[in-house]
């Protein structure tokens, strides 16, 4: 715990604050930030920091404060104060609440640096005028009329560590380490009277305030409620009239459910540092296995430190995050705002990593030697200490103990040209093929910013990029194209509505049928290549779900955050017969854009995160929500069973989140079988506006996590192609009927694009004792390109914990000195030299 309040009792300070009728918060950048200062009402107006505006004298100001001490002040009422902030047209209020009863606030340095200017009254003059005072006077009366809280002995309640979205890890009390900052048990003094009337007061307060504000212009709550209701009604009509959509809305808006969720949170927090929200599956798909029946949970635990725009599981224990260079809470060793971090989900500790270039909207993939490459990015931004990342290649090699950092050497390791929003895929020789992107920033891609080229890392041929007519034809929405290496050593590519097969050996494009919806950024469908199995002769089949059909040729200001996302899936088998049939469509349970498609060890696909309306990005459409181009988050996952007949493939009814995960959110399967969910920041920088910057991490546990699971303890460090290997120390649940071994690439995740996502079922057998499994590695590197994969034993659909195993010998991908020299000498791509680039000799594997 951090040092107490300078020889004053935190509980007594809390008592004094609770007797004050009106509280608000004021930035004071000049003040020290490692202690709490309290200023009680005075006879003079208090100046709003960074502006010439004043506030009335009836306010109590809490200035600065570290995270521990702020968490001890549990008497502040957020919701009513937020309305006062809204009426005065404040932007990005620093207030955050634990639940509907108790509100806490702590002013953090990132906010002070970022939001001094936005903290101005939008329509007032040099000071708060009579109109503003008249408007907020009824609010003051409501507060003053509230009875003084009971002075009964405070009851300690343990709350989730770092449950707030924003905090400052760079400023800590002496002796407070990263680990304790992220995982310490904080205690909040809450009065016994709160516990008795919590749920009752919440619902009554909501009704009372709503009723009162409907007849008064003093508080904008009613207007906001009506606006929200109109948006919700419009979304329901536009999106769906099904019970599922109504259920989704109820999760968000019903006060009883909010109170119930708050109660659940408190109970869970009293037992653990995690907040769990369990729910039974209510509609099991007719073809989904029993492993999907029963209880599923969302558990909110820990913090990513940086907004998790990009995510990759790097070992059996660690997960890496990349963000754009912005004013994140986590600080690096030199005190700068971090934009990359390494998480240990077992302990919820997070460590800052130190890239030097801006990884904003970068792509990523793995080399055959086990090195993660983060690709491209954006120029230096804002006040962060970063370098231009448009041509960057950032390298990270995982270590068992979680040590190590990101390596960059732009003089020798870089791209041939600027790439923002590029994609990559690992090829059969262990190298990366890199596709597309932009050479300059913008909402959507256009001819003059497009980089419709391909290059390799390590470089091949003469090292120069290859022009792609396909990418050019896919304008204006060809960013973050979907790529999958196919079993015949070619590549599937999708951008916008266009699809093709690319032969990277001969530089040949073969066009495929057009998709019925737009799938790449900013329309952002979830996409997977369905499992490759011996039973289907490793025949590839591609699935996309969601996305949008908004016209990508109109101006962004004519697009709407309320336009329904696509509600269909499109699926095609990549053989002669399947291509002749084209994309086969079916209807989803609802509308979804920016949904992550996660392959699970039993071969199912889980769709998680996203929004029902709008599109990816921020600050573009006319009716932004906060800064977001999208609205109406999808809070509940859906399960897709590929083997079921069309129309019967979806299972719904799983546990729901309470956190909007929209633009710049990510999700991934973990080795232990859970789904980790992080990120969401549809904003230009760290903010607490609606759809705020989100650092909270959640773990979704499917029903199979609560069933008896198989295990294995011994496994090889490498699996060679078409070679036998054994898993020993196997335990199987009683009466197991079928056992499979699945090999999964857990992928690099960003913008609803799981780069290199892949699952292969291996040929296997179980000995008579049920303790040894003999299996055979993938037939070749076309089926599973060389590099790390995770091996799961699946018994009757229920998976074991997966373990990371190197597929192949772990050697480096082929390198060519000539190609590297050509890549380093290339002057960069622009539209004016596209014809010259297009004539480059095709790459032939090195």
From TrEMBL:
Record's protein name: Galactose oxidase-like Early set domain-containing protein
Glyoxal oxidase N-terminal domain: residues covered: 333-704
Record keywords, A-Z: Signal
Galactose oxidase-like Early set domain segment(s): 709-807
A Pfam family annotated for this UniProt entry: Glyoxal_oxid_N
Signal peptide: none
SUPFAM superfamilies xrefs: E set domains (SSF81296), Galactose oxidase, central domain (SSF50965)
InterPro entries recorded: Gal_Oxase/kelch_b-propeller, Gal_Oxidase_central_sf, Glyoxal_oxidase_N, GO-like_E_set, Ig-like_fold, Ig_E-set
Compositional bias (Low complexity): 212-222
Domain of life: Eukaryota
CDD domains xrefs: E_set_GO_C
Organism the protein comes from: Mixia osmundae (strain CBS 9802 / IAM 14324 / JCM 22182 / KY 12970)
């Amino acid at each position: 715990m951090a040092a107490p309040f300078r020889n004053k009792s935190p509980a007594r300070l809390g008592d004094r604050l609770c007797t004050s009728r009106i509280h608000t918060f004021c930035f004071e950048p000049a003040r020290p930030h490692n202690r709490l200062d309290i200023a009680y009402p005075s006879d003079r107006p208090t100046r709003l920091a960074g502006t010439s505006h004043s506030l009335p004298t009836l306010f109590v100001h809490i200035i600065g404060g570290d995270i521990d001490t702020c968490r001890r002040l549990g008497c502040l009422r957020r919701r009513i104060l937020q309305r006062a902030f809204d009426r005065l047209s404040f932007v990005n209020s620093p207030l955050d609440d634990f639940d509907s009863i108790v509100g806490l606030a702590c002013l953090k340095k990132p906010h002070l640096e970022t939001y001094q200017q936005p903290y101005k009254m939008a329509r007032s003059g040099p000071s708060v005028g009579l109109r503003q005072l008249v408007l907020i006077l009824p609010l003051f009366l409501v507060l003053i009329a509230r009875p003084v809280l009971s002075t009964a002995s405070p009851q300690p309640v343990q709350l989730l560590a770092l449950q707030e979205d924003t905090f400052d890890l760079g400023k800590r009390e002496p002796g407070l380490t990263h680990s304790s900052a992220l995982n310490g048990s904080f205690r909040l003094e809450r009065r016994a009277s709160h516990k008795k009337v919590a749920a009752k007061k919440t619902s009554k307060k909501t009704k009372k305030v709503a009723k009162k504000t409907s007849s008064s212009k003093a508080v904008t709550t009613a207007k906001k409620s009506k606006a929200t209701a109109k948006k919700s009604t419009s979304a329901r009509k536009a999106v769906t009239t099904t019970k599922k959509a109504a259920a989704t809305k109820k999760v968000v808006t019903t006060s009883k459910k909010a109170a119930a969720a708050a109660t659940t949170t408190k109970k869970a927090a009293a037992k653990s540092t995690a907040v769990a929200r369990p729910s039974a599956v209510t509609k099991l798909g007719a073809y989904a296995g029993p492993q999907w029946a029963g209880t599923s949970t969302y558990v909110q635990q820990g913090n990513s430190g940086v907004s998790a725009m990009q995510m990759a599981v790097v070992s059996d224990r660690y997960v890496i995050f990349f963000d754009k260079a912005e004013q994140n809470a986590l600080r690096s060793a030199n005190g700068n705002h971090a934009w990359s971090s390494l998480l240990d989900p077992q302990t919820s500790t997070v460590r800052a990593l130190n890239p030097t270039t801006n990884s904003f909207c970068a792509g990523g993939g793995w080399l055959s030697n086990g090195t993660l490459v983060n690709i491209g990015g954006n120029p230096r931004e804002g006040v962060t200490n970063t370098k231009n990342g448009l041509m960057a290649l950032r390298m990270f090699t995982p270590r068992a103990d979680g040590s190590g950092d990101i390596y960059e050497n732009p003089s020798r390791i870089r791209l041939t040209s600027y790439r923002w929003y590029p994609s990559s895929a690992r090829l059969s020789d262990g190298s990366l093929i890199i596709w597309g992107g932009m050479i300059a920033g913008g909402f959507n891609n256009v001819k003059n910013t497009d980089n419709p080229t391909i290059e390799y890392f390590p470089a091949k041929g003469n090292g120069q990029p290859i022009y792609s007519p396909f990418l050019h034809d896919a304008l204006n929405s060809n960013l973050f194209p979907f790529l999958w290496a196919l079993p015949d050593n070619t590549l599937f590519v999708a951008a916008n509505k266009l699809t093709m097969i690319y032969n990277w050996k001969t530089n040949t494009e073969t066009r495929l049928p057009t998709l019925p919806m737009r799938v790449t950024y900013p329309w952002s469908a979830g996409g997977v290549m369905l499992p490759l199995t011996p039973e289907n002769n490793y025949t590839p089949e591609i699935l996309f779900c969601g996305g949008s059909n908004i016209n990508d040729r109109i101006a962004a200001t004519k697009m709407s955050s309320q336009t329904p996302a696509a509600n269909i899936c499109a699926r095609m088998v990549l053989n002669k017969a399947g291509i002749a049939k084209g994309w086969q469509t079916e209807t989803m349970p609802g509308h979804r854009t920016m949904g992550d498609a996660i392959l699970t060890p039993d071969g199912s696909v889980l769709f998680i995160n996203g929004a029902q309306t709008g599109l990816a990005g921020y600050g573009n459409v006319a009716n932004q929500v906060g800064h977001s181009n999208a609205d109406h988050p999808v809070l509940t996952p859906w399960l897709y069973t590929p083997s079921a007949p069309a129309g019967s493939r979806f299972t719904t009814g799983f546990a729901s989140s309470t956190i909007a995960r929209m633009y710049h959110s990510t999700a991934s399967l973990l080795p232990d079988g859970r789904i980790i969910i992080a990120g969401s920041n549809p904003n230009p920088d760290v903010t607490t506006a609606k759809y705020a910057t989100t650092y909270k991490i959640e773990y979704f546990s499917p029903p199979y996590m609560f069933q008896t699971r198989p295990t294995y303890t011994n496994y090889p460090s490498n699996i060679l192609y078409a070679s036998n290997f054994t898993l020993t120390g196997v335990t199987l649940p009683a009466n197991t009927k079928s056992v499979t071994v699945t090999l999964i690439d857990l992928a690099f995740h960003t913008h609803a694009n799981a780069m290199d996502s892949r699952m292969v079922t291996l040929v296997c057998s179980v000995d008579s004792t049920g303790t040894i499994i003999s299996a055979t590695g993938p037939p070749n590197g076309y089926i599973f390109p060389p590099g790390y994969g995770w091996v799961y034993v699946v018994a009757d659909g229920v998976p074991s914990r997966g373990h990371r195993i190197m597929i192949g010998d772990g050697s480096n991908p082929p390198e060519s000195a000539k190609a590297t020299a050509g890549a380093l000498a290339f002057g960069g791509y622009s539209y004016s030299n596209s014809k010259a680039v297009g004539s480059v000799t095709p790459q032939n594997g090195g």
